[in-house]
Specification:
Among the domains are: about 150-175 and about 180-210 and about 220-260, Beta Barrel (Thrombin, subunit H); about 270-370, Trypsin-like serine proteases (Thrombin, subunit H, Beta Barrel), CATH 2.40.10; about 380-485, Roll (Pdz3 Domain), CATH 2.30.42. The chain is about 25% helix and about 25% strand. The protein has 15 helices and 22 strands. It has helices spanning about 5-10, 15-20, 25-35, 40-45, 60-70, 90-95, 95-110, 130-135, 145-155, 165-170, 205-210, 360-370, 385-390, 410-415, 445-450, and strands spanning about 160-165, 185-190, 195-200, 220-225, 230-245, 250-255, 275-280, 290-305, 310-315, 330, 335-345, 355-360, 380, 380-385, 400-405, 420, 425, 430-435, 440, 460-465, 475-480, 485.
């Protein structure tokens, strides 16, 4: 059904005479004009045609019947055929054009039209604002006692840890060959109020190895320090001294006093396996990175990146990566217990096994470097045989076989015997099994015992003599040796 108002609009397009006609009359006229549906034509009964004779003439019976009806006379005359009904009066009055216009008007009037959208019973919902869809953060809880202590430790000690960059890395000289040089971008620890910074030898090893021997070095690195306002400044650093065998070096920075905050020193002898430690450094160039862990081992013999052995190393599972070298290993009080130096890894990244030079050794090395620019280390000046050589010689004792003794050394004068050639073949030398009452099973144990002393002090060595021959000929001997300066090594 057409919506209201559509009829008025449609009739306005009709001729004047039709527009004034009532709707009922227009409907009747439209009905008379509408053609019969196709289905009604199909259902209408068909009229049978009259029978025909030969040649199209009516059959004889039909002629006879007509003649019989004629004889009946006028009384029996059939009624005349009905005349066709006249056309409606409306069609007489209307012309062809007006009839077509009327049909078109009603066709458009009753044509199906799209339904208007139904009005919603409830008003549309308003779009939410950004503030309404943003979740409210949960209130922050207070830090635990452990977290509070860790935060306080970092805030107190982070300024004592600095970034050290070798000048060859800054100039790009270390990268000319195309090789990756992990040294040169590391960490350092502020040692005192005078601006001395302790780091690893291998951090500045590139520029030290490139410098001619005997030539005084000036600026070797750039050191970045943090001020009390949190801002960082970079200063040139000069070399004070270096000890390659211990992987330690001391730099000097001329910075304002407010940028120099020394690190508190601890005692590595008091460190125990399982205690918490904290490493601060610049791994991969990310400055002032804090990692935590525990002490997982003590008295490790560390082979540094320059190839030397460092005794008494502290093992930790705190993440130590390239760039942490020379950084601080702190105890829970924020005291320095070691200088991070190496990691055990097959990939170059942290594998959970890191090593630090014990601070007790650092305290003996650094003052000599600051005062003399070099280190005089105590030594027995003896050579130690490989464990496989000891087995081939039949040594059964768990100790260190002495292979050589320096001529004219204090060890030779004290009576230590080296491995030598005898009448019956090679004779094993003395086997050191203890030093100062502490058991010795590796070369690192012996070096650690010696480095606990200064030059000129005495050390008691316990050896097994004659091991490798008959057991009944083995003797246990105690020898006191006056320590002297270790023979010069390549630096």
């Amino acid at each position: 059904m057409a919506p209201p108002g559509a009829i008025t609009h449609t009739l306005s397009a009709l001729p004047p005479r039709l527009a004034r006609a009532p709707p009922s009359r227009l409907a009747s006229m439209t009905t008379s004009l509408a053609p019969a549906p196709a289905w009604r034509a199909r259902l209408a009964p068909r009229r049978r045609a009259p029978p025909r004779g030969v040649g199209g003439a009516p059959p004889r019976a039909a002629i006879a019947d007509d003649a019989g009806r004629a004889r009946d006379g006028a009384s029996s005359r059939a009624p005349p055929a009905a005349a066709p009904s006249p056309p409606p009066r409306a069609l007489v009055d209307l012309g062809r054009r007006e009839a077509l216009a009327l049909s078109a008007a009603f066709a458009s009037l009753f044509a199906p039209r799209p339904l208007a959208p139904r009005a919603s019973a409830s008003p549309p919902l308003a779009q939410p604002t950004l503030a309404e869809v943003t979740p409210v953060p949960a209130p922050a809880s207070s830090l635990t006692a452990l977290e509070t202590g860790t935060v306080a430790l970092f805030e107190r000690c982070s300024r004592s840890v600095v970034n050290v960059v070798d000048l060859t890395v800054l100039s790009g000289q270390a990268m000319k060959s195309g090789a990756v040089v992990p040294e040169g971008n590391g960490t350092g620890v502020v040692w005192d109020d005078e601006g001395h910074v302790v780091t690893n030898y291998h951090v500045i090893g590139a520029i030290l190895s490139a410098a001619p021997k005997g030539r005084a070095l000036g600026e070797v690195a750039k050191v970045t320090l943090e001020g009390p306002d949190g801002r960082t400044k970079t200063y040139p650093a000069t070399l004070v001294g270096a000890e390659r065998s211990k992987d330690l070096a001391v730099l000097k920075v001329n910075a304002p006093p407010e940028y120099v905050r020394p690190c508190a020193l601890g005692v590595s002898e008091d460190v125990r396996v399982g205690q918490a430690v904290f490493a601060i450094g610049n791994p991969f160039g990310f400055d002032h990175t804090l990692t935590t862990g525990v002490v997982s081992g003590l008295n490790r013999t560390i082979q540094s990146q320059v190839g030397s052995l460092i005794s008494g190393g502290i093992q930790t599972d705190a993440a130590i990566n390239p760039g942490n070298s020379g950084g601080a290993l702190l105890d829970a009080s924020g005291r320095l217990v070691g200088i991070n130096t190496a990691i055990f890894t097959n990939t170059g990244a942290s594998a959970g096994v890191g090593f630090a030079i014990p601070v007790d050794l650092v305290r003996r090395i650094v003052p000599q470097l600051i005062r003399d620019g070099r280190v005089t280390l105590p030594g027995l000046n003896v050579g130690v045989a490989d464990p496989n050589v000891a087995k081939q010689l039949g040594v059964r004792s768990a100790g260190v076989l002495i292979q050589t003794v320096a001529s004219g050394s204090a060890a030779e004068k004290a009576g230590l015997l080296p491995t030598r050639r005898g009448l019956g073949g090679i004779v094993a030398g003395d086997v050191v099994v203890a030093a100062d009452g502490k058991r010795v099973t590796t070369e690192g144990d012996l070096v650690a015992a010696v480095e606990m002393h200064q030059v000129g002090e005495e050390i008691e060595i316990e050896v097994r003599r004659g091991d490798g021959g008959d057991e009944k000929d083995v003797q246990e001997v105690k020898i006191v040796v006056v320590l002297e300066a270790a023979r010069a090594t390549e630096r």
